[in-house]
Amino acid sequence: MQRLITLSNLYFSLPTPKFKRYLFTQIDFKSKLIGILGQRGVGKTTLIRQIAQHYELDNAKMLYISADNVKKTLSDIAIEFSAFGGKLLIIDEIHKAKDFALELKTIYDFVDIKVIFSGSSALELENSKIDLSRRALFYELGSLSFREFLAIKFELNLEALSLEEILNNHQSIALSIKEQFKPLEYFSYYKSYGAYPFFTEGELGYNLRLNEIMNIVLDSEVASIYNVDSDKINMIRRLLHLLCSSVPMELNIQNLAKSAEVSRNTLYSYLYYLKKANLIEIIGGNFRNKKLLNKPDKIYLDNINLYNILCSDHNIGSLRESFFVSQIKVNHSVKYSNIGDFEIDNQYIFELGGKNKSFKQIKDIENSFVIADDIEVGFGNKIPLWLFGFLY
């Protein structure tokens, strides 16, 4: 225990960023068991340290452990720490712990202590033999929004906008923002290295770090959680490269399966794993029992930065749509539309394109909008793409 306490004190002595991710304000701090899930590198460890600080406890009352660095069971650690007056136990990398669901249930039921834990977004919590849904509150931390990137990189602390604010007042909002910085210039930085907060550790090595993280997600998390051996992981890696260079509207599942050298059913399983690991985003398809049930409407990489490391021949339309989906999916439902590109919240139709994109395809559709890249300020129902980076 003394070694764990020493490492924990080092963890709490680290400088903590003042800026808090969007998820911080959504946390129910009264809950006894809080789970923060998300892809490696999105900032879960920093967020749980900020959550811990919210309780204003002495360091002696808090213990941070990483589940891949302990020999005792999690429940034994919690019992011992509680006996010495501990009030808050933080468990990082929960997916590395054996029988973590049973251990968390035991702690919740028998130990007077709060627990905050982080884990891979690929965790199959809903299919666990131990149902944690009645005990724990789970939150999913996504990649950085454009707004969050601006706050961290340039200390531009701008308020998040609702979708309705953007649709109704985008012109005045864009003009106001334009007075503070050049949106297209800063948006180009975001597209290069802005989706993960570790850009603060060096922008030149950003892509190398991102590639390393992607490999860890595949080789460690996906492989262990879904029991996939190394040669199959290499097939999944090949599938990612194929998806990177594909045009979503032209996606052919049969051809994709053939190119990836897998059966259709195996392809659907792999797509499910990648979706759960937050490496891709799937529009349509339906999920159940670790499988994708039917043909998806569109598939994108999870965020725009992944295209930089997975292929050199990416399609500009895919990049635009990937960014839009990554920003709007956090608080809104996204469906494929036969009329435009997307239907949002069963209410709005969006068509994406470049600065010269016209309304031809959606001109007679109520509540329809053109989302245009490479423009600073829009007009009427034509809205700049970058502005949707302020949704969270």
Q: Could you give a quick summary of the protein structure above?
A:
With 392 residues, this protein is an alpha/beta fold.
Please supply descriptive tags for the structure shown above.
392 residues; Rossmann fold; 5-stranded mixed sheet
Main beta-sheet annotation: 5 strands, parallel
Unreliable spans are none
Number of helical stretches of at least 4 residues: 13
Kindly report the oligomeric state of this protein: single chain
Number of strands: 14
Principal-axis shape equals globular
Helix content: 25-40%
| Adjacency order of strands in the biggest sheet | 2-3-4-1-5
CA-CA gap between termini: 40 Å
Using only CA atoms, what is the Rg?
Answer: 22 Å
SSE-based structural type: alpha/beta
**What is the N-to-C order of secondary-structure elements (H for helix, E for strand)?**
HEHEHEHEEHHHHHHHEEEEHHEEEEE
Mean pLDDT: 94
* Beta content: 15-25%
Number of domains: 2
Plain-language structure description:
With 392 residues, the protein is an alpha/beta fold. It folds into 2 domains: 2-141, Rossmann fold, CATH 3.40.50.300; 148-390, no CATH class. It has helices at 2-13, 44-54, 74-83, 100-110, 146-154, 163-178, 183-193, 206-225, 230-245, 253-260, 264-276, 306-310, 316-328; strands spanning 33-38, 62-66, 88-92, 114-120, 137-141, 280-283, 287-288, 291-292, 298-301, 334-336, 342-344, 348-353, 368-372, 382-384. Strands 2-3-4-1-5 form a 5-stranded parallel sheet, sandwiched between helices. Strands 10-11-12-13-14 form a 5-stranded mixed sheet, covered by helices on one side. Helix 3 runs parallel beside helix 4 and helix 8 (206-225) packs across helix 9. Residues 30-143 form the AAA+ ATPase domain. Pfam families: AAA_14, DUF4143. This is ATPase component BioM of energizing module of biotin ECF transporter. InterPro entries: AAA+_ATPase, AAA_14, DUF4143, P-loop_NTPase, WH_DNA-bd_sf.
